[in-house]
């Protein structure tokens, strides 16, 4: 799994460098910015798992920078930092979606606990040729803490698995270019098949294919429509035990 990417925004360079050193020693990838304007420019071209933002910055304040970052990337995770009492401003930040507020000087253990809490649970590839259905699953899985990739054809699915080190594959059986069965067989041939949950809206018509896939160690099958919670539960179990067989409606 790739290390978390962290952005530290603080004009106190000694403080920022010290925090960056702590996080890099723990294996995190860290980028520094000395102003809100610099942070915004960085955000336009890069993504971060979490940002630590000082409230008091030269030029654009930390609060102004936070709201601009959230406008630019609404899902950005930002933790405010301050050595001063600005209670109303900080309440506004939390109400606007900030993760919370850290008082300076920072407690290193608390910082590491925060980073541990935002670690994504793993990488899931959702393969379905229905864009609306695929994006809805992406939304639910992202809310559950997973990183999610999408593929809409069988060939695209194979390429993404080979390129990205997928932890769990959610595979629709009816796909253009290559069927779900062909995708799974190709990944098995290449010895690169992650734990796989197959998905179908045609359980009766595809009963034979489902039976064959289960015999080949597919984890389980979900029949459309299904509750997103059922998929999230299955993925969570597969992350803990990749060899588990999932009992699900079929």
What does this structure look like?
By secondary structure, the protein is α/β, with parallel strands linked by helices. It folds into 2 domains: 5-118, 3-Layer(aba) Sandwich (Rossmann fold); 123-240, Response regulator (Rossmann fold). 44% of the residues lie in helices and 19% in strands. Helix 2 packs parallel to helix 3 and helix 7 (154-164) runs parallel beside helix 8 (180-189). The longest helix is centred in the N-terminal third of the chain and has 13 residues, at 13-25. The radius of gyration is 22 Å and the shape is elongated.
Report how far the terminal alpha carbons are from each other. 31 Å
With strands numbered from the N-terminus, the spatial order across the biggest sheet is 2-1-3-4-5
The total number of structural domains is 2
Shape, please? elongated
Find the structural class using helix and strand composition: alpha/beta
Q: What is the level 1 CATH name of the largest domain?
A: Alpha Beta
Largest sheet, strands/sense/barrel: 5 strands, parallel
Task: Let me know the average pLDDT.
Answer: 85
| Beta-strand segment tally | 10
């Amino acid at each position: 799994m790739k290390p978390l990417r962290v952005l530290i925004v603080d004009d106190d360079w000694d403080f920022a460098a010290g925090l960056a050193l702590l996080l890099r020693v723990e294996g995190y990838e860290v980028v520094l910015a000395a102003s809100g304007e610099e942070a915004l420019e960085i955000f336009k071209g890069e993504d971060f798992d979490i940002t630590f933002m000082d409230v008091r910055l030269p030029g654009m304040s930390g609060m102004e920078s936070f709201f601009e970052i959230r406008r630019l990337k609404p899902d950005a995770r930002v933790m405010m930092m301050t050595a001063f009492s600005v209670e109303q401003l900080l309440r506004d930040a939390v109400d606007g979606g900030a993760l919370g507020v850290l008082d300076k000087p920072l407690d290193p253990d608390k910082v590491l606990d925060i980073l541990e809490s935002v670690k994504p649970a793993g990488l899931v590839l959702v393969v379905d040729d229905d864009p609306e259905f695929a994006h809805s699953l992406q939304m639910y899985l992202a809310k559950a803490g997973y990183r999610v990739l999408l593929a809409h054809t069988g060939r695209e699915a194979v390429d993404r698995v080979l390129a990205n080190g997928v932890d769990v594959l959610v595979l629709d059986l009816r796909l253009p270019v290559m069927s779900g069965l062909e995708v799974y067989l190709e990944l098995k041939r290449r010895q690169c098949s992650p734990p796989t949950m197959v998905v179908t809206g045609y359980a009766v018509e595809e009963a034979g294919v489902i039976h064959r896939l289960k015999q080949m160690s597919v984890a389980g099958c979900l029949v459309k429509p299904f509750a997103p919670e059922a998929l999230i539960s299955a993925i969570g179990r597969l992350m803990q035990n990749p060899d588990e067989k999932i009992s699900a409606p079929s």
